[in-house]
Amino acid sequence: MALVCGCHPARAEKERAPPLAEGGPPRYAIAPMASEDRPRPLVVQSDSSLLLDVHAPGFEEARASIAAFAELEKSPEHFHTYRISPLSLWNAASAGLTAEEVIRRLSSWSRFAVPENVLFTIRDTVSRFGKLVLLPTDDGDRLFLSVTEQAIYAELASQKRLASLLFPSSGGFYLSLVDRGTVKLELTRLGYPVKDEAPLARGEPVELTLRSRTADGFAFAVRDYQREAASAFTGDGQAGSGFGTIVLPCGAGKTVVGMAIMDLLKTSTLILSTNIAAVHQWIDELLDKTTLTREEIGEYTGDKKELKPVTIGTYQILTWRPAKEGDFPHFRIFRERNWGLIIYDEVHLLPAPVFRVTAEIQAVRRVGLTATLVREDGREEDVFSLVGPKRYDVPWKEMEAKGWIAEAKCYEIRVDLPDALRVPYATADKRQKFRIASENPAKIEITRQLIENHPEDSIIVIGQYLAQLAEIARATGAPIITGQTPNSKREEIYNDFRAGRVRVIIVSKVANFAIDLPDASLAIQVSGTFGSRQEEAQRLGRILRPKERNSFFYSIVSRYTTEEEFSGNRQKFLTEQGYKYHIELWDE
User: Are 160 and 243 part of one and the same domain?
Assistant: First the structure.
């Protein structure tokens, strides 16, 4: 068997670009302009959707320009569809983008005049950001929601969902401290995002400093964009700063951003992450790059329940409860120390139950770290209201162009179902169709050949179904990591991979998030979750650590099946970031 068109492009060594200049402009301050003497690629429609012509000159520049305030909805071959939503505009506004800058960008790239109703909607929506201001009171036992416009005051007073939370007064409403997050979320859903200027708790002081040389003896410095991200979060330390989300590509060093924030605040910190391996990576990074000692760092997982000045725990342990309808006993971790900072690692995975307690601890500084604000449960508004708006964002391709993450080449390999599976596929229900297509046995041979075609690469094979992964492990002789693999064995395999003792590993979705494998340069995705955009982003992120070679991402998909449809949805996030998939056919 052979791949049509080769599927093994020549690798190009890439020179690392210099870091961003210090004191540069804030995010979104500058955007490319369309040339007057060529067709423009954008069509702005009256329903606030944007059609972007993939084949027109300036497509990539226009895509980068509008990505700051518009969300990608569809990405077929010829026209990509974006939509301007209130949340996308409010996130852009929180990161410094004005309504007039949004309009300037649209007008610059639009083939036709921007519809008047779209201009009005942009100005009106952005102007709502900050119409309501949350302020402290003299007694300190409650907060005051300042409302300057009588029409908005009347609208809020008539809302039944807010009746038990807001208490009318002259010029606004009083509310309880514990209802701070709930009120902000409800108001966001009503179309009035709150400018929160109530003070935040300082927390217990903790002495820590970032090292100039790591514990292993290597030179270490915070990159300029990492410093900018930390400063964008902390602000001037006054009201209105100290909460929000930082959006950076996988491989760009979000952990370093978190440590830089800790260095600026020097306060007791609770870090929440996705799994035990990620917890141990945080501990290793803190010991390697800060002056914290092991005695000052606690692990709060299923194995240990340590509470120290800096504590790292998992979302899994927080959301455990002995009975389905019972309380979450480990939520007490939020109250058992005087935390000054909470870091939500991979905040797009923050479990829904944690939002409840997040609403109650609005007085604590909190930062969400993520590569994508896309949530599969559609709760982006909850992240915006309860963790905080987007404070800093750098597009993936911009980081790639500057040499901070590896250049990635993405391929989708399409393969037919074997004759023996076509009838079972045709008669199966939708879920079973997806599984039959995902476990197409032809994928095993393709995977084996791709591994042979890349003899110098460190390779991760990623999949959804354990039986399929076990077959690939047997065919390739590579070690396998699943949810059933003991944590000690997982870390042994990861360490062997990092050290080069193992060149290929097979992993289930447990390796999607927060696993640092810096030398991985090729990923083969044999199956994935139903259309998960965040999963696609995270899996590509496994191979984006900077290195002296290009990275390759292969996704193997059964042709003429529902897997093609779901694969197209997964690719939307990467398309939004500027990556292109090359389609290859597996030739029998």
Answer: no
* Same domain (yes/no): 491, 552: yes
Q: State phi, psi for 584 to the nearest 5 degrees.
A: -125, 145
Place of tokens 């939500």: 344
pLDDT of residue 19: 37
User: Does residue 570 carry a pLDDT above 60?
Assistant: yes
Q: Give the Cα separation of 259 and 226 in Å (integer).
A: 10
Task: Look at the chain and count its residues.
Answer: 588
Of 95, 128, 161, the last residue of a domain is 128
CB atoms under 10 Å from CB of 478, counted, come to: 22
Shared domain for 288 and 317, answered yes or no, is yes
pLDDT at 428: 93
Task: Give dist(CA 548, CA 14) in Å, integer.
Answer: 7
d(CA 334, CA 319): 13
Backbone angles phi and psi of 459, in degrees to 5: -120, 135
CB-based contact 485:515 (threshold 8 Å): no
The answer on 115 and 253 residing in a single domain is no
- Distance (Å, whole) CA 359 – CA 363: 9
Residue type, 455: P
The token duo for 465 is 């179904």
pLDDT digits (tens, 9 = 90+) for 198-217: 888 889 999 999 999 998 88
Of 253, 235, 255, the closest CA to residue 244 belongs to: 235
Q: Is the pTM of this model over 0.85?
A: no
- How many domains would you assign to the chain? 4
Q: What is the pLDDT of residues 268-298, one digit of tens each?
A: 999 999 888 889 989 999 999 999 999 999 9
In-domain check, residue 23: no
Tell me, what's the pLDDT at 132? 93
- Residue 24 banded pLDDT, cuts 50, 70, 90: very low
Residue 501, number of CB atoms within 10 A of its CB: 9
Starting at the edge strand found earlier in the chain, the sheet holding 79-83 runs 42-44, 49-53, 79-83, 71-74
Which residue bears the tokens 């009256």? 46
